[in-house]
Amino acid sequence: MISTKDLRKGRRISIDGEPLIIVDFQHQKVARGGATVKTKLRNLKTGAIYEKTFNGGENFKEPDLENRKMQFLYEANEEYTFMDITDFEQHILRSEELGDLRLYLKENEEYSLLVYEGHPLSLDLPASVILEVVQSDPAVKGDSVSNITKPAKLETGLDVKVPLFIKEGDFVKVDTRTGEYLERVRK
Q1: What CATH number does the domain containing 35 carry?
Q2: Whose C-alpha in 18, 106, 120, 123 is 20 to 30 A from the C-alpha of 82?
Q3: Is 149:159 a contact under the CB 8 Å cutoff?
């Protein structure tokens, strides 16, 4: 059982049999009153986001979610096809279900998918991914003040601010939680 004191961003809980993930939360303590937790929840099955307040000490069940390793095969017509690497069964996730996570997907790479009652719901990405820069303006001579960035388009269509020394063909590490440039990677 999960208590209100265990709630945090990214935690998965089950309410009335529905798998939910906490998008945001805030603990509140009122004088002479009990503690409450205001949460913003996203339903993993429908994608609906809503707010709910819980009293301190409430308990929740852990949703029956399973992580499965799957290989991303291809994208066609806003549908992303994954293949289970154990039984070779193919699963499709729509772009609405993936949201911005689709901008970190590379063909033929393995990812962990959240599966609920045999149906894939969402993607569990690693903390960072390495992507190639396909479009970036050249640095202008004289723009050497520290911490100046320029826009770059990566191989998956993701737009990222990168330092001036990054050029087309370079590989960069990007944080999948924030979408920010982390470092240049030698391949």
Answers
A1: 2.30.30.30
A2: 18
A3: no
